[in-house]
Design brief:
The protein is built from twelve helices and ten strands. The protein is an alpha/beta fold. Helix 1 packs parallel to helix 11, helix 9 crosses helix 12 and helix 10 packs across helix 11. The longest helix has 29 residues. The chain is elongated, with a radius of gyration of 21 Å. This is Glycosyltransferase. InterPro entries: Glyco_trans_2-like (IPR001173), Nucleotide-diphossugar_trans (IPR029044).
Length: about 375
């Protein structure tokens, strides 16, 4: 019985790690109340980089132009599109005095690299405060810009927002995508509150232009196809310069992928950047995922072995209760309460998917952003 005993004691350690993480998440963000900071209409440049997004631009740009904000411009960056993206951008530019278009031609050195296109857009912007979103995103409200910009201050030069995905009925994939999005937000908001911000999402984030240029922009990872959002934030964010915005009116909403393969390809690009994070972030994020995986593997194995099953079940139940509290408060706050009852099932699906993505990335590198 030596082997089951060893597995049991490892399981106790794993559950303890999971509980420690979820309690930290719960108290640092889960039960934290959102605060509206509608202070001042500082001049804002909204940067939207688009590649083959003609239809989304037609549909979504009017909602950004409709923001209740007195002083903002929109910099539209056409990243070598092959559809009517540039034409649509030019039409909006002709009808709006606060839109600029940057047309990025194909460049062999930076082909397929969103960071190059974003850099040109940032250089073209005229204001010091930059807000980033994507062509397939819409603001949750016409006060989105006011809520995001209100988090800037003399000390805070980075604002991390929440980029939600639209809900689709009767779709397990949609629930999985939204579950992963909430879990990611729970972590990056919690880490920021704990004084160790490590990432943001390009669908909804902001920072000052001088922060970008004073840190040489994306130059330290320009060769990587992904990471225009998380790698840059991981590099420059700290406990004193980072603020978070999670009021409902500050959300953006994107259309989620509709096929598992396309979502996995998207996540492959995102996950490939994690190995370039700071060592402390790689360690703690890796420990969290490893403990998640081991929780399921060891829990199932010990129950099958019928070893101390009462204690195993008690530990499993305790861990799920604390996880559901942490995730539940966060999901409710982010408008995703329908996911709470499916948490164990969605977590198992997500862990399995992430493991397959990790293995796939070891075998071959993910390709350019579109």
């Amino acid at each position: 019985m030596l082997f089951p005993s060893i597995l049991f004691y490892i399981f106790i350690v794993v559950v303890s790690i999971q509980i420690g993480y979820y309690l930290s998440f719960l108290f640092s963000f889960g039960i934290k109340r959102a605060e509206s900071r509608l202070k001042k209409n500082i001049p804002i440049s909204i940067i939207i980089c688009a590649k083959n997004e003609a239809d989304n631009l037609k549909k979504n740009l009017p909602l950004i132009l409709d923001q209740e904000y007195s002083n903002f411009e929109i910099v539209l960056v056409n990243d070598s599109s092959s559809d009517d993206t540039l034409k649509v951008m030019k039409e909006f530019e002709a009808n709006s005095n606060n839109i600029k278009v940057v047309d990025v031609k194909t460049n062999e050195t930076f082909w397929g690299n969103k960071k190059y296109a974003l850099t040109l857009g940032i250089k073209t912007s005229k204001y010091d405060f930059l807000v980033f979103t994507d062509a397939d995103c819409i603001p949750k409200s016409n006060k989105w810009l006011a809520h995001i910009s209100g988090n800037f201050s003399n000390e805070k030069s980075i604002v991390l927002g929440y980029g939600a995905y639209a809900k689709k009925k009767f779709s397990l994939l949609n629930k999985l995508i939204r579950f992963e999005t909430v879990m990611t937000a729970l972590q990056y908001f919690s880490y920021a509150n704990l004084g160790s911000p490590y990432m943001g999402v390009g669908r909804n984030m902001a920072y000052r232009k001088d922060l970008f240029f004073n840190n040489s922009g994306f130059s330290n990872h320009m060769s990587l196809k992904s990471g225009d959002d998380d790698l840059f934030i991981n590099e420059v964010a700290d406990k004193s310069n980072t603020s978070i915005s999670y009021t409902v009116d500050s959300f953006t909403i994107s259309e989620p992928k509709t096929s598992l393969i396309s979502w996995i390809l998207q996540k492959r690009r995102h996950i490939s950047t994690a190995k370039f994070y700071k060592l402390q972030h790689k360690f703690f994020l890796g420990l969290f995922y490893t403990s998640q995986l081991l929780f399921w593997v060891l829990g199932v194995l010990l129950i099958l072995l019928n070893y101390n099953w009462q204690w195993v079940v008690a530990l499993v139940v305790l861990r799920f209760i604390i996880q559901l509290l942490s995730f539940g408060f966060t999901a409710k706050k982010l408008g995703e309460a329908d996911l709470i009852v499916l948490t164990p099932i969605l977590e198992l699906f997500l862990i399995t998917t992430q493991l397959s993505i990790f293995i796939a990335n070891l075998i071959s590198k993910p390709k350019h952003w579109k």
